[in-house]
Design goal:
Layout (H helix, E strand, L loop, with lengths): L3 H21 L5 E2 L11 E6 L6 E9 L3 E8 L5 E9 L6 E10 L6 E10 L5 E7 L2 E6 L9 E3 L2 E10 L20 E7 L1
Antiparallel strand pairs: 1-12, 2-9, 3-8, 3-11, 4-7, 4-12, 5-6, 5-8, 10-11
């Protein structure tokens, strides 16, 4: 009988130790910042299901902490399959880190596709773009510019960039536009 109590006490201590480890781990928070432009007050939204030309458009951004991009997403006023690209913009030439074909089965509904996690470092200069001839174009009703940089949790949005792309070749758009934004592409970022 005497040997059971020390064994019981040891088992109880182990259970408490392991259960407290689970409580210390916080769930990973998914951050998805770019659709937040739709929540701006006093904006007008020009919905363009089919434009005359195809555009490569999206955002330049920096993570403020190390982390991982685990999904790419889009939201468009049409259905179809579109190319979404995650870019490394740190060097002299933009490099595609991940290109993903994403099918939008429903108009106006965000769609995210999981990708193999892409590790990104704090302050890395990244880009996310979509190649499409469809978009929402947002403008402020008072005709002022959207302000950048814009910090949302662990992401700094540096600029919105756009450029016509009739060749279909992968080229990161260099033209920044602060009077209009087309927030049709997004990422899911999880901080380390």
């Amino acid at each position: 009988m005497k040997t059971r109590y020390p064994l019981f006490a040891l088992l109880a201590a182990l259970i408490v130790a392991f259960s407290s480890c689970d409580k210390d781990e916080e769930p990973k928070v998914e951050e998805s910042p770019f659709f937040s432009f739709f929540d701006e007050p006093a904006i007008t939204i020009d919905t363009t299901p089919v434009a005359a030309t195809t555009w490569e458009y999206g955002f330049v951004f920096n993570p403020l902490v190390d982390g991982q991009i685990t999904s790419l997403g889009l939201k468009l006023p049409v259905t179809g399959t579109f190319s979404v690209k995650l870019w490394n913009l740190d060097g002299s030439t933009p490099v595609i880190l991940k290109e993903q074909q994403i099918t939008s089965a429903n108009e106006h509904v965000p769609v995210f596709v999981d990708i193999p996690a892409v590790g990104v470092q704090k302050e890395a200069k990244l880009g996310i773009t979509i190649l499409a001839n469809s978009f929402y174009r947002l403008e402020k009703q008072n005709a002022t510019e959207f302000s950048y940089p814009r910090v949302l949790k662990n992401i700094r949005i540096v600029s919105f960039n756009e450029e016509t792309n009739t060749s279909g070749l992968a080229v990161f758009p260099e033209m920044a536009n602060s009077t209009r934004v087309a927030p049709c592409v997004n990422v899911i970022f999880i901080a380390d």
